[in-house]
Amino acid sequence: MEQLPGADAAFLAIETPEAPGHVGGLTLLDPTTSPDFSFDKLVATISERIHLAPRLTQTLREVPLGLDRPYLVDDPDFDVRNHIRRIGVSSPGGLRELAELASYLHARPLHRDRPLWELWFIEGVSDGRCALFMKSHHCLMDGTAGAGMGELICDLEPEPPAAFATAADEERDGQRNYSSLEIGLRAAVHLAQGPRKTLGFGAKLLRQTAGMLFNSSTEGAPPLPTSIPATSFNRDVGPRRAFAAASVALDDVKTVKNHYEVTVNDVVLAITGTAIRNYLLARNELPEESLVSIIAVSKRAEGDGALGNQVTTVPCVWASDEPDPVERLKKIHHNAAVSKEVCANYDAELLSGMGEAFPPVLTNLFMRNFAPSLAPAMTPGNVLVSNVRGTPVPLYVAGARIETMYPLSILMPSQGLNITVVSYMGKVDVGFIADPDLVEDIWELAEAVPRALAELVEAVEKELQAPRA
Amino acid sequence: MEQLPGADAAFLAIETPEAPGHVGGLTLLDPTTSPDFSFDKLVATISERIHLAPRLTQTLREVPLGLDRPYLVDDPDFDVRNHIRRIGVSSPGGLRELAELASYLHARPLHRDRPLWELWFIEGVSDGRCALFMKSHHCLMDGTAGAGMGELICDLEPEPPAAFATAADEERDGQRNYSSLEIGLRAAVHLAQGPRKTLGFGAKLLRQTAGMLFNSSTEGAPPLPTSIPATSFNRDVGPRRAFAAASVALDDVKTVKNHYEVTVNDVVLAITGTAIRNYLLARNELPEESLVSIIAVSKRAEGDGALGNQVTTVPCVWASDEPDPVERLKKIHHNAAVSKEVCANYDAELLSGMGEAFPPVLTNLFMRNFAPSLAPAMTPGNVLVSNVRGTPVPLYVAGARIETMYPLSILMPSQGLNITVVSYMGKVDVGFIADPDLVEDIWELAEAVPRALAELVEAVEKELQAPRA
Hints:
alpha+beta, Chloramphenicol Acetyltransferase, 6-stranded mixed sheet, 21% strand
């Protein structure tokens, strides 16, 4: 029995019916890599390994009236079959239908009387593929307390060594150390950690309430939270979710990146920003001042492998007021650099602090009653854009190769749109999650992304063909 | 704008996350009766008719702090496509897989910021069939305020007259009268009203709190609510649901009914009671005293067409302490007759009265905090068995013939198991809904029903072959 650490407890306490605190992942699988791939094999694989992730078999014991952080206790009735479910996608089983199904599954809160995760095995996917939808409460995903579902089920090869589970278990039971294989898995599977990282925004939100002010005298520096322009999707978030996704070639992103000497993240911000700019322009709703994105990039992705799960989120002026796409990219590059410098010192674990400092009942009362009205003033930007670096090598689930994994993140109060981007095996997969009452056609956003990249690639080609000045 | 009547308001107020107040229906369709049957045709059919059921396009305006009954207002953003959804069943798409999917869909509460209904179009059903899962809040199903979803979409022929919707609409708008066709539909479609009727149990529960005592001196009369034997499924009900179903031939039921001069309802009680008796026997949990069923039979089914939706629920001693199946049937016949006589005067609309008398906030506080502990004392029986007479003639949805419709009812506090029975087109379809934490294998119950009937049919055959005394 263990008491939940502050940050994890805070993720539970801030949960409301409109803003459940779980994250999701829609994973497309190619089962042809494993002749015996099946629902039963998936269940068997997870059953074999579940002991490696103790939190997945524990349930919450909440303190009466929410006066203290909850405890985690072993669920005496734990049965992995209560958590792994089968469902089908409607025909023809393409990305649109999968996204619709994932939206339904993601919108539904997890009930707190069992370990807080579900895994949905989805049949009926087109082209003989199948899919998984993973859903787990953010409070389960503590980096030190145990592996998450993604790490538990992902392998670097279709047929991992059979001794994996037992060997790792023995080491763990004795010393709470990880086997070297497990360490390798944990390091490789950034995919599954994506959603957690985007959640660092929770910390950001609270950081703002502490009254930190940005240095607004530097050009391109983010504005004060009170000066973020209003949009139709920065309103109270309701209980429904809509999800849409698009993929582009990493090579195209790199062509643009190399030519303009910017970062992959700058290109990602440019093409998603263009999608949102066009969406608002088409509705005559684009604010005069630039929108502000909130960038959540894993520190590990920047080369510092030792920092674990620490999260950096910084607001970045999105240059949505700049009509020329290339100029917009250049401004974003400049603004992102300024933001990182200006915000370099902002990295306190404030959500954790809040979890330690306040009883859950107060945090939850605050979120239910005041967050929606205060959030616009507290929020440092319009849309959180989380760019997660996956692996260049393929990953496998029960022998089936992962083709794509889109994380579905949490919408915070007044953040009716969230973007997550994963690079994996030569593709950049872009996922949009939104409240469909605030974003009327989320596919319009997703479909604008490849067009925005094509526009930049075209500009590069034009400049390369033009005689050098 | 209209204020919800007391009974409907009470159905909202008693709702908790563990006991949501919606009812469901799993309908199997044969699409071969309509060459152009499709999801789009279903959507078009409902769009055409939705104006006939005003409550399906209205949303709740709750009174602040729950101090008065909510109002119904037109939803300015109403779009039928927000309420009709597509999903697939896992392979092979048989009754087990459909029941599993229906369990998931039924367990999830409806969110209150939109009209309180959903219709799921289910693909992937075996044998080229398809299925629907209908879900609507009980507060929508008022008999006078508008037709329910079932009545709205069911036809007596594959291609109903095209003028149906318009003609009916004009009459309705002018006089609030129904067209004769609509009256025919309303009268025919008992199927869709089944779930509502089972809910009359809410009234029963409150009747008990008013302190009514049963006449316990008559032989076979129901015991005092405080003397109902305890079982493992009469405990606090959690948020999950499991559903299982079985079908038997109406002719077999009638063979038994006619031979022993009992009613169809007596046979239904006997075969479901035998299933539960065997289930508890196998676990060494059968109480010494007889279990008590709660019978909810529509008055209309007894020939009184004018009474509308009035509900009768009476407790009936189930004779589960009688080992011989034929003797059990005879005792049930006797006990049901005694119960109806003893309880003849109990028919006040008490749930309605409670809805009028108490503000929703008090009713809900009561249900959330005290109902689970008080319920065992208030509840007049172990399991509600609702027997709904369907039609002998086929019904159609968007041209596709309805083969089977199983209602999925509400579980009340301490009622972890509920049975609904529908007779339709020569079959008797029996559905069990339960909290899977209280009933470990609901299919064991469903599968015991045809065996229990076969046992009675065999007894009849034996008696017919034996020389008459």
